[in-house]
Specification:
Helix 1 runs parallel beside helix 2 and helix 7 runs parallel beside helix 9 (385-393). The chain folds into two domains: 7-289, 4-Layer Sandwich (Purple Acid Phosphatase, chain A, domain 2); 296-393, no CATH class. It contains nine helices and 18 strands. It is α/β, with parallel strands linked by helices. The termini are far apart.
Length: 398
């Protein structure tokens, strides 16, 4: 690896350490009820290749490894096998996010640490400091760890998993959320030596961040947003929680989710951040794109035939199709659409002449009710159960 900006700080010469930042894996998350297990495997295998090809020494995972507190056995198998493959190249440091059960996530710590995989939950248990691989923790207490590489270069990591009172087992008090955040962040700063390069690793909603449809349980009103003035002085802030890649301030980064989870992310690129932490700060920052996560596309057509044509043109992508129709779909047409494996979501827009006065009065109604009412208004009879079932199979309702 190229040596950058070497200088002496006390008895130790610090040069550079190559780090990668990723977050929000959400292993096990489905789209419109469909499993994406193979795609998760491919994307995580690509992250392993990136770490190898880029010479990454430490991978930081900023929370939300799983999509639910109780992931399926398949989701856990994908996680364990994938992170083991990554750890064959570099050390892995993971914190829990709001979707993770931190007790469950850290349960295998005694085994995972032997593979150079370290997880930090809200119990803030210190890491086991032992030489493993080419990068490993040499000092750790609750809320922080110092990692050292084979050249003796060190970086200080302040680790703050998704923070709230319940997870830290704190009772109610008059202390403001901002004061609590400052206290929690300062706790992870208490062991930092002067002059040592440092990273803040957390799963939080930073003030000014932009969220999308796929984030849940985020306080958008601002009361639980973390002000940028509360962030510690460090070389790089590696955040998770928001699924769109973004930068706030000078050094606060959301790497973004590794896959596109909702159709409002259709145009988003996905990747991981790779950079060097040096004695002079952040160097050689770049985003390495993830090519194995499937594209999401939003398509529109004025007929079933045209819609199927668009779906065939986007065969490698996951599609949401909106049909602008003047007549209702027949069972055979719905069957033809259902045969398109890349069609995950079907929406229908009724001709404006037929839908005069229709939109406002139907605001908030379910797709099944709207479809049933439309069919009844057009044909004076209830929609056949078989047709309704076919329609619902191509919408988000199950």
């Amino acid at each position: 690896m190229q040596v950058l900006n070497a200088r002496t700080l006390g008895p130790r010469t610090l040069v550079d350490m190559r780090i990668a930042h990723t977050s929000d894996w959400h292993i096990g998350k489905k789209l419109m009820g469909r499993d994406r297990g193979e795609e998760f495997k491919e994307v995580l295998a690509e992250i392993a290749r990136i770490c190898r090809d880029e010479g990454v020494e430490l991978l930081l995972v900023a929370g939300d490894v799983f999509d639910t507190y109780t992931p399926s056995a398949e989701a856990e198998e994908i996680f364990y096998s994938s992170v083991k493959a990554i750890a064959e190249t570099c050390a892995v440091l993971i914190i829990s996010g709001n979707h993770d059960d931190y007790v469950r996530l850290t349960a295998a710590q005694a085994l995972s640490e032997e593979l150079n995989i370290y997880t930090v939950g809200n119990n803030l248990k210190a890491l086991d400091c032992k030489k493993r691989g080419n990068c490993y923790p040499v000092q750790s207490e609750g809320g922080y760890a110092v990692f050292e590489n084979s050249r003796g270069e060190r970086v200080y990591i302040n680790t703050l998993p998704y923070p709230n009172e319940a997870r830290f087992k704190e009772g109610k008090s008059d202390e403001s959320f901002a004061d609590k955040m400052k206290r929690w962040i300062d706790f992870g700063e208490r062991g930092k030596p002067d002059g040592m390069p440092s990273v803040f690793l957390s799963h939080i909603f930073a003030a000014g961040g932009t969220s999308g449809d796929s984030e849940r349980e985020i306080d958008l009103g601002g009361a639980r947003a973390v002000g940028l003035d509360l962030f510690p002085k460090c070389d790089y802030c590696a955040l998770g929680h928001l699924h769109g890649r973004q930068k706030l301030g000078n050094n606060i980064y959301y790497s973004g989710a590794i896959m596109r989870f909702t159709f409002d992310e259709a145009g988003q690129d996905k990747g991981i951040n790779v950079f060097d932490i040096t004695a002079e700060g952040l160097q050689n920052f770049k985003i390495v794109q993830l090519s194995s996560c499937k594209k999401l596309v939003r398509l529109q057509a004025n007929s079933v035939e045209a819609g199927i044509g668009l779906l065939n043109l986007n065969e490698g992508a996951i599609a949401e199709l909106t049909l602008n129709l003047k007549t209702p779909l027949s069972p055979s047409e719905l069957g033809d659409l259902r045969a398109c494996e890349n069609l995950y979501s079907l929406k229908m827009s009724v001709d404006s002449e037929l839908a005069s006065g229709y939109s406002a009065e139907n605001e908030g109604k379910s797709s099944s009710l709207l479809f049933s009412e439309y069919y009844s208004s057009r044909f004076g009879t209830e929609v056949p159960s078989e047709l309704l079932e076919l329609f619902l199979s191509l919408t988000e309702e199950e």
